[in-house]
Amino acid sequence: METLAPFVLLSPLAGFLVNALFGRLLPRRVVGWIGAGSVGIGFIFSLNLLLQLLTGAHSLDQTYFTWWQSGDFSVPFNLYVDRLSTLMILVITGVGFLIHVYSIGYMREDPGYSRFFAYMNLFVFSMLLLVLSGNLIWLIIGWAAVGLSSYLLIGFWFERPTAVLAARKAFVMNTIGDVGMVFAAFLIFLNLRVLDFQGLFSRVHQLPKGGGVITAICLLLLVGAVAKSAQLPLHTWLPDAMEGPTPVSALIHAATMVTAGVYLVARMHMLYDWAPAAAATVAVIGGVTALFAATIGTSQVDIKRILAYSTMSQIGYMFLAVGIGAYAAGMFHFMTHAFFKALLFMAAGNVIHAFHDDQDIRNMGNLRAGLPITFWTFLIGTLSISGFPLFAGFFSKDEIIRAALSAPGTEFWLGVVALVTAGLTAYYMFRLFFIAFGWEWLSHDERHLHEALPVQTVPIVILAAGAVVGGYIPVASFLTPVFGHAVDVGTGAFIGLAALSVLVALIGFLAAYLLHARRPDLAVVWRTRLGPIHALVEHKYYIDELYDRLFVRPGVALARFLNDIVEPRVIDGAVNGVANFFLLEAREFRLIQTGRVSSYALWTLGGAIGVVVVVAAFLGYLPVRLGG
User: Fold this and answer.
1) How far apart are CA 307 and CA 422, in angstroms?
2) Against a cut of 0.70, is the pTM above it?
3) What is the 3-state secondary structure (H, E, C) of 75-90?
4) What digits encode the pLDDT tens for the residues 221-248?
5) Contact predicate 122/16, CB 8 Å
6) In degrees rounded to 5, what are phi and psi of residue 206?
């Protein structure tokens, strides 16, 4: 195991280096398969690690070299492989491989082909470093590298101003989270004198349970998690991240970046168990974000932005789960979400290509004849994310709702929020499906739509299979050595809560069918009746506008003041003033330089006499009283 773990990291790193250094010299097909193959090799190594864990191997905490040492303190490069990190790397490399294969066809005509695959491989490497790191230093390095990779990929089409602004926005938001992570690491080191995970978990009980220090540590970690996973209030970067290519959206949303916050809380579960207030904060943020994003998704018309708000909502479910201590349920939903969300984004990419980069769902429709594979796979993804029975999303989402509804105290109300969100999810996803795909069969379709290449359809078919059967993978039992056994709510409660969840999803489906398939005129009527509310939701509760007034405009005004007033008048004024002073003095002293030797001799004699007088006075040879 200690030999295999580094190769999971090294394979995408090698792909990045080859494509970054030599990609322009290689044929496009070679570049694409180097990028995809390097991640696929990482998936094979991950499968070998899984087999070793299943056959009785224990977790691994292996140090490979010491990165930095000062006195008694050292920072080793150690990899921590247990069942949690193994689940993460399997999803990252497995789903990431399919996204890379899909990208071979999707990006085939892009002039930045080799650069794209280099960035994608760097992204996967950064995420793998994040989840495999055995100490906080390397976790933070991977955390920052993921932010850098997202900046490069979101702004990949840098000739578009909107892409540059979106990349900058994502970078700034994630930097806020990075600061929280760094402060959390400082607090941990100052109080426990340790930064590796095993040492941290063994010493955390030295801090008072629920005390100020452990709560502050967990809240600072939460700042990083909220920023990376686009939860309230640091969520505004994620919808704008749709400016990147569609495979980037699939990779960010399904297999890598936005799930990093969920992984962080799950990895630090012993800390959050020791800080109940911080854990409750995680749950509340998750529940509120899930409902908040779902309501926005009901009014959007950009196919990728609808899926982006869907991701925010689903990550909110995961935060809710880990916040109430249902860690295995949260990670289960992470896995199933990777299947159906990557599928939905990649299928949406096929539709966008078919409509020549038009992303407005109102300009689409009737796709079953022209794009049959995309049509049926998107329907499977929609059924799965909506929580319909027998699909993967039903099992994982139902575990979260059941855990929340059966929890004591105020957590019950978070379960109610999750249940309402499930109905909204079914509504906005089937609204998207009915408008963008439609059910009508056109016998004479003059648009001449064509299905995507096999290199783009085969990966979504595989993901569709995962969106169906992924719910039957025993993730909870697999993660029992990490989190312990989940609370059993009983067969009766299980069936009753599952039936309630299905009923809510069915109501959402029927509402979408009535308003957007059977009677579209009713949707117009209700949109008019709900005018102010619809406008509020359509404009995303004006959060971007609020941030613009609170932070962006004052920041720009301050920058202009510094640039127009402080810089030229204070800083430049001070520097230029000093220069002018010495220039003036130089002009005065220049008059002394007459060029006459007799004058220089006279000045020299006068100076020498002055020195003798001063020295004599200090030595007491002259009757001079100092200070007299």
Assistant:
1) 15
2) yes
3) EEEEEEECHHHHHHHH
4) 999 999 999 999 999 999 998 899 999 9
5) yes
6) -70, -20
